[in-house]
Amino acid sequence: MKAVLAKFVSRRGAAGLLAVLFAGSFVLQAAQTAQAQSSQQTAQTMGSLDLPIGGIQATVTPAEPTIPKNVASGVQVVVTQNGTPLTAAQVAQYLGGSFQLTGQYSGPGLSQTVDVPQGAADANPLIIDLPAVSTAGDYTLSNVQFVVNGAPVFDVTPSDITVHVIDQVLVTSVQTKPLTLDEIEAAGVVLDSSAYTGFQFTVGLQLSSQVVNVSFPVVFDAQGVPVPQPLSPPQISPPTGVDVPIPTILPVLLQGSDGNGNSISLPPLPGGKPIKIPSIIVIPGNVGYLKQFFSAQLYVTNGAPGDSNLSVSDVTGTINLPPGADGVTGTSDDPLALPNLISGPQPATMNILAPPPGGGTPTIGTLNPGDTGQAEWTIRGDKEGYNTINFGINATLNGLPTGPITLTGSATGGVLVRNPFFNMTFTVPGVVRKGELFNVYATVSNISQVAAKTREAWSPQANGMVCLP
Question: Is the Cα torsion angle 89, 93, 94, 98 positive or negative in sign?
Fold first, then answer.
């Protein structure tokens, strides 16, 4: 009979070793008795037995654990016998009673070496808890031992274990860019009245004409101020098929001119009364342009080392737009807003998803080390100026020996809203006749460096005006 005895790595695992040696001794004694009896008979081989006697070994997994800073975690110890992992209960039975893992922890964020664990042991006795540290770097966990009844009985190899404390798991970035009209339409933005900025222009034409009666009252006080001011427009139905508002009529008094733009006094009427020439020639109109829209993309990367086995799931991002002058978000004076989409209101919180390995639409919700997820918002600029946008990030970190933990983070970006500037040029005929339509041409020139999308200009009666002396 032969016995194979493997190297026993424990210095003090006497209970287990004695049990194994006792079994081996019993077999050897039985073999010797059988041999003595057989010596009196004819030499004959009765049989053979291979009795492997193995020891146990304790290591950590992974070999160099990774932990984010400011996170209390731990190191997983694995005990094997002949390559087979043992449970905590099996280890306790082998060591002869309940056990606890102890060690010393040192590194750049600790003023001195500390004993671990510092509090109550973890629910899993094969995990040695480590305190949270605020400084990233490489730390050392040394002299990790199994302690039974206050006495060390078993060492974990190696004696010095490197623990990598990383600065952050979530690495974020924000990218913003103005959208073209095609990109706005592709994003499904609803272009309603809130998507446009408009202003009103008014042109007054000075006419040389005689005084005529009009069909609505115009009253001036002694100082020539119209009363009331301004007058409401007469009840005139707009032209069929043309959806434009009726302009407000502002009465004014015409003054004499010497032809060079200088006012002169008109001679009085017989009886000494001054000459007053009221006029109501007013041409209102509007210019409107599409507000600026921006794409805000939030990128989140799992910055853990590739061999750390740390994954991030359930990653969400929430956009926080700046308030207006009233200090309250969601009111009409906010400089930025989330426009409605064809699919419905745009949510402030979105899932951060990664594209599949072959590329395409992001659909993967778990970020392994090195993976990057993203989400995109469409923002409308309502007020000119530079505005900061903030993002809140929430996620779940998986892979730590102590179980999943919640991660939070933030990211910041900004958009510059610039309104275009226009130069308005009007062309009118030199002579007009009462009751006849005449054309007034308005030329709108964008003199700024910002594109004005879907620019619109209109005036009453479409392109034609009626001369009302």
Answer: positive
Spatial separation of the C-alpha atoms in residues 111 and 106, rounded to whole Å = 8
Task: Provide the strand spans (E) within 303-363.
Answer: 311-320, 336-337, 349-351
Q: Does residue 201 lie within any of the structural domains?
A: no
**69 is a domain residue:** yes
Select from 417, 441, 457 the last residue of a domain: 417
Cβ atoms < 10 Å from Cβ of 396? 14
- The C-alpha angle with vertex 184 and arms to 182 and 188, in degrees rounded to 5, equals 110
What sign for the dihedral angle of Cα 440, 442, 443, 447?
Answer: positive
Per-residue pLDDT tens digits for 124-139: 999 999 999 999 999 9
User: In which region does residue 307 sit, left (phi positive, over 0), alpha (psi from -120 to 50) or beta (all else)?
Assistant: alpha
Count of all residues that appear for the chain in the document = 469
State phi, psi for 32 to the nearest 5 degrees.
Answer: -65, -40
Domain of residue 275 covers 206-283+420-466
Residues 6+ apart with CB under 8 A from 162: 64, 138, 139, 140, 141
Report which residue type is found at 325. Answer: A
176 and 308 part of one domain: yes
Q: Indicate if 69 and 154 belong to the same structural domain.
A: yes
The torsion of the CA quartet 150, 156, 162, 165, rounded to 10 degrees, works out to -50
Q: Please indicate, yes or no, whether residues 298 and 378 belong to a single structural domain of this protein.
A: yes
Q: What is the pLDDT of residues 226-272, one digit of tens each?
A: 555 444 444 544 444 444 444 545 555 666 666 666 777 777 777 77
- Counting Cα atoms < 13 Å in the Cβ hemisphere of 104 gives 7
User: How large is the average pLDDT for residues 150-178?
Assistant: 92
Give the sign of the dihedral formed by CA 360, CA 361, CA 363, CA 366.
Answer: positive
Is residue 317 within 8 A of residue 393, CB to CB? The reply is: yes
- State whether 84 and 160 are in the same domain: yes
User: Which long-range CB contacts under 8 A does 318-324 form with residues at least 24 apart?
Assistant: 318/348, 318/349, 318/391, 318/392, 318/393, 318/394, 319/348, 319/349, 319/377, 319/389, 319/390, 319/391, 320/348, 320/389, 320/390, 320/391, 320/392, 321/379, 321/387, 321/389, 322/387, 322/388, 322/389, 324/383
Amino acid at 91: V
